[in-house]
Every structure is written in structure tokens, then in C-alpha cells.
């Protein structure tokens, strides 16, 4: 039977999103279930398998019409071997995810870091269309990134390249979840913005943020927009660091385009204005004049479309 | 006539080094002349052309036995077009270097950033032999780098990738020659080490460095080795920053091997011990356990052998 479809699986800490799509990325059916990470490895695997069956049934397609399955997962992974090495928000450790899926469905299955999968999605169907060298950066709870080099995903030797969130940009900076100090992620992620705001509030700073029971990066952006001084200062400093991270990746990778995605990027103009200002200050002219920084096009569906794009790219 | 040889040209601020070599890298003849940069573009070009003729004559070969010419030059360049865009220590600005050489000799000629050329040299004939993904970093007056990805030089969109020396690792750090603040080069290059030492001496610091008329990074390393406190502190801090730069490039490129070259790397164990210590502190386990940091093998001839290797790689 002609294999004209692929399946994408976005494995997240709270939900598993799947989509059945044509080879041009057109989505036929979608299905999402809770991850139930607390249930352990086999429970989550079982949910992935049944979600794949469900999305097939919803799209009225058969297993032998499917060319490939792409899975985007938090890392670090061994994507060559199809293993999840460890994940902070999922119960997997050295877990063979690809093997049981291939055994069940007899469909070639590809596992990729979720930021890499999202990068492939933006490259094939989003803001990176018609480019050849692209860096994708997602700024939300954490900061992840992926690079497309000459039209292919850049993996590196262990398939864990582009961990931009864990590059050091302030050697004596705050401790990061990874154990290092002064990582970009500890300075500019949504979590970092919320942490800094809550620390300042606890220390008695004056701010309209005091009216909220829970302060996340969303509220800090909101109050900054309304003119709150503390919020504005925090946002400005975080975006300065984000701009440094973007400048550094431009200086190293020399891409045509940097696509910024993730929740923080949704704040829009304030983010892009500041990041561009920092790039103009810190990057070589030849590099910055030949690189655009643009918003992601697939923000909310970046995970599952990324997984679909991964399946398409890898099966070509 | 069978083309069994290549020519490498290392264009430096003070001298032009050329070598005629077999396709396996074996050098047949070498010739070096002063650059005479003060003489201007046409003067330097004339010297390059006559050096190529001289190294051919010394090797007793004819123009039509030469497969290709490789030129390593300081950047930024447009290596696709064969243009030197601008160079701090050479008189070139938007200068077509490849065109007049190809016109004179009718030999395909390739221009590459000198750090990239040295990276190709280490990859083909030095410490990076038998690897596929390598980062080369040279630490001397400046800090340059080049990456080999799947056996090819990584250029980026404008051919100016891997400007590691100009990534920011201390946002409020000292001003760099490039105009930015807190670049790796302004913190960890030989020039930076000398500058910091001279600043401290001028401010009245106690140190055995006082006995020298001129203090370069060489003397700082020497006195650190003999136990001078000021020198040790300066070296330790600079190598901490170098270690951060190396950690960041490992975190982004995920290479099999990092080759450290340039004058500063010749200080040996003290450099590699400290850099490895920082990597252990700052890099993901999966990345650091799969990447070795090793000394360059071609240090003194890295320029001209790199240019030869460039000629060989590009003509394949």
C-alpha cells in the first residue's frame, strides 16, 4: 500500500499530543491525552501506543499507510539509538522508546529532542520556510534551541547539540537547574523571570505585582506593559540576557534567520525590539546584517507539527 | 598534465608563508616573505603572487601540475566570492584576492578565514585526524575558531561562523577591539592576559613581573609557573573564562573533540587542567563525557599547513 501519511507525537510532561498528517504537513486528525507521568515508564509508553492507534482511527487510516512516526521529547536523548537518557519531568531513564513502537506498528520511528523537532517544524512549515540555515530558540519554562544547517537538522556527536539554554553568559550568575551557574536559562527563561520577580517581592520591593496571588512571567510582562517599574526592570534585564544568548548563537552559527518561539516570545514587540538592540550592540556587522530575528509561526502547535515535520524529513 | 600538488598560502599581518605540497599533505617546498602591509593592497598582492611563483620554482614544479591554491587570511571575509571584507592588521577592504590569483595562474583558488584553515589542517593532518566533528580554537593575540561538521568545514550563511572570540561571556566585562564588551577574546586571549597584568602593575600590585621591561602573556605564564601570586591569579581567571568559552562551544556544537592551539595553548598542562575543570563544572554529562579537549598538533605551522589542507579539501 502506498505510504502517504506520517504520525507526529509530542511527548510532554503533562500531555501527549499526536497528529496524523499528509506528507505536505496537512493534518488529517489529532488526538491528545494526559501523560500521567506519575504512572511510570510503562504507563506512559502504553499511552503513547494507544494515542497512536487512536489518531490512526480518527483519521480513518491503516498502519501500512504510514511512512514514519516522529517523536519529539524532552532530553537529553540518544536519538540514534532511540533512547530517552533522562528527563526532569518524565519518569524515563535510559528508556528505549523507539524500539517498542517500531515493534508494535512496524513503522520506522524517529526520536528527537523537542526543540529540534520544533526547529524542523518551523523550517518546513513555519517562519523558516525557504531558508537553508536557521536557528530556532524556544523561551518558555526553559530555553531550548535547534539548528538547521544546509536544510538538515544539526545534531552533533551525541545528538545533544544546541543546548543554548545551558551556555554560561554570566559566570557568577544564579544557579541553574542543571547545576551550573549563570546559564542563559537561569537568567532569561519564563521561570527565571518569575523567580526574580518573586525574590524581589519577598525582599519588599514596591510593585503592582503585589496584587497577584501567583506571579509568573506572564504577570511580569503584563505589569511591565502597564508601566510598573520593577516589572519593567526585570523584563529589560532578562531580555538583555536573551539578546546576549541570541547574539552568541549568531556569532557561532552564522544563520540566515533566528526564529524565536515559546511563551515568552508571545510578548511580541518588547521582546524583539530589545533582542535586536542587543544584537546591534554585540554582533559583527556582516553577521547581524545578514540575519533576521523573527517570531515563530507555529507557536501553540510547535510540538506536534515539529514531530510531524521530523517524521517527514527523516523519511525522505 | 596530472595535477598532483597544491599550494597553501598563509597570509598574516607580518609575513606571507607559502608551501607546495603533495595531495597527502607532504610538503615539497616552502617560502616565506614579509607581508609589508604598510605598502598597501597591490603591494601585498604582488608579494603573494611572487611567493607562489617562488615556492613553485623551489619545488621544481610547473603551474599546470597544481590542482588548487588555498589561502588562509584574517577575516571577516566573503569566502564564496573570494573577497577580504576588512582586516585589522592588513590593508585590504572589500578586496578581491582570489580573482587576480586565478587570473594569473589559472588554478582554482580558495580563500578561507585563517582559523578555519587551521581547523582543516588539524582535521586532516593533526590532532583531529580520524574524527568527524571537531572544533578548533586558537588562543593567541586573538581567539579564533573553526568547526568541522561531518568531515566538512562549517561556514555558516556568510562564511563567518565560529567567531567564538567575540561571544559575550561577561556582559559588563572589558571592551573588546570589536566594540563589544565582555567578549571571550577580551578576557582570555594572550593580549587580554598581558593587558590585565600591565594594568595591575600600573596600579602598583606586588609581583615578580615588575622585573620585566615588557610584560606579555608569556612572562605572566612564566611567573605564574614560578609561583608569583599576581601572575597565578591572572592566569587562573583568564583560563576560567577560556574554559567557559570551551564549555559553551561544546554545549552548542556537541563535538567529538576540541583542539586547542595558538600560543597560549603552548603553556600546556596548566591550560588543559583548568579548562577541563571548568568543563566538568559547566557542561552536561553526556556532552563532556563524549568530548576530549586536546592540544593542537601543528601549532607552529598551523597556518600554512591549514592553507594546504584547505586546498586539498576544496579540490576533492
UniProtKB/TrEMBL annotation, chains A, B:
- Which branch of life, at top level? Bacteria
User: Which Pfam family is one of this chain's hits?
Assistant: ROK
Quote the InterPro entries the UniProt record gives. ATPase_NBD (IPR043129), ROK (IPR000600)
Q: Which PANTHER family match?
A: BIFUNCTIONAL UDP-N-ACETYLGLUCOSAMINE 2-EPIMERASE_N-ACETYLMANNOSAMINE KINASE (PTHR18964:SF149), ROK (REPRESSOR, ORF, KINASE) FAMILY (PTHR18964)
> What family is this?
Belongs to the ROK (NagC/XylR) family.
Q: What is this protein called?
A: ROK family protein
Amino acid at each position: 500500500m502506498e505510504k502517504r501519511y506520517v504520525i507526529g507525537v509530542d511527548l510532554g510532561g503533562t500531555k501527549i499530543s499526536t497528529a496524523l498528517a499528509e506528507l505536505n504537513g496537512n493534518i488529517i486528525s489529532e488526538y491528545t491525552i494526559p501523560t500521567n507521568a506519575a504512572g511510570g515508564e510503562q504507563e506512559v509508553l502504553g499511552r503513547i501506543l494507544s494515542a497512536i492507534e487512536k489518531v490512526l482511527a480518527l483519521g480513518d487510516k491503516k498502519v501500512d499507510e504510514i511512512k514514519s512516526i516522529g517523536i519529539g521529547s524532552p532530553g537529553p536523548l540518544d536519538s540514534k539509538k532511540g533512547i530517552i537518557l533522562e528527563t526532569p519531568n518524565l519518569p524515563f531513564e535510559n528508556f528505549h522508546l523507539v524500539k517498542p513502537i517500531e515493534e508494535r506498528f512496524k513503522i520506522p520511528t524517529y526520536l528527537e529532542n523537542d526543540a529540534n523537532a520544533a526547529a524542523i517544524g518551523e523550517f518546513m512549515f513555519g517562519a523558516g520556510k525557504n531558508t537553508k540555515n536557521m536557528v530556532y530558540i524556544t523561551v518558555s519554562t526553559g530555553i531550548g534551541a535547534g539548528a538547521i544547517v544546509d536544510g538538515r537538522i544539526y545534531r552533533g556527536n551525541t545528538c545533544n547539540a544546541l543546548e543554548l539554554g545551558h551556555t554560561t553568559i554570566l559566570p557568577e550568575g544564579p544557579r541553574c537547574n542543571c547545576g551550573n551557574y549563570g546559564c542563559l536559562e537561569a537568567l532569561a527563561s519564563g521561570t527565571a523571570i518569575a523567580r526574580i520577580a518573586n525574590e524581589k517581592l519577598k525582599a519588599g520591593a514596591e510593585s503592582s505585582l503585589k496584587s497577584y496571588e501567583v506571579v509568573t512571567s506572564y504577570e511580569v510582562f503584563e505589569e511591565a506593559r502597564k508601566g510598573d517599574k520593577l516589572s519593567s526592570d526585570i523584563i529589560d534585564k532578562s531580555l538583555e540576557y536573551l539578546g546576549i544568548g541570541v547574539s552568541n548563537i549568531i556569532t557561532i552559527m552564522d544563520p540566515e534567520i533566528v526564529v524565536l518561539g515559546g511563551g515568552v516570545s508571545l510578548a511580541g514587540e518588547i521582546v524583539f525590539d530589545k533582542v535586536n538592540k542587543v544584537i546591534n550592540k554585540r554582533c559583527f556587522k556582516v553577521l547581524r546584517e545578514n540575519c533576521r530575528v523573527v517570531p515563530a509561526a507555529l507557536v501553540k502547535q510547535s510540538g506536534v507539527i515539529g514531530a510531524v515535520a521530523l517524521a517527514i524529513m527523516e523519511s525522505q
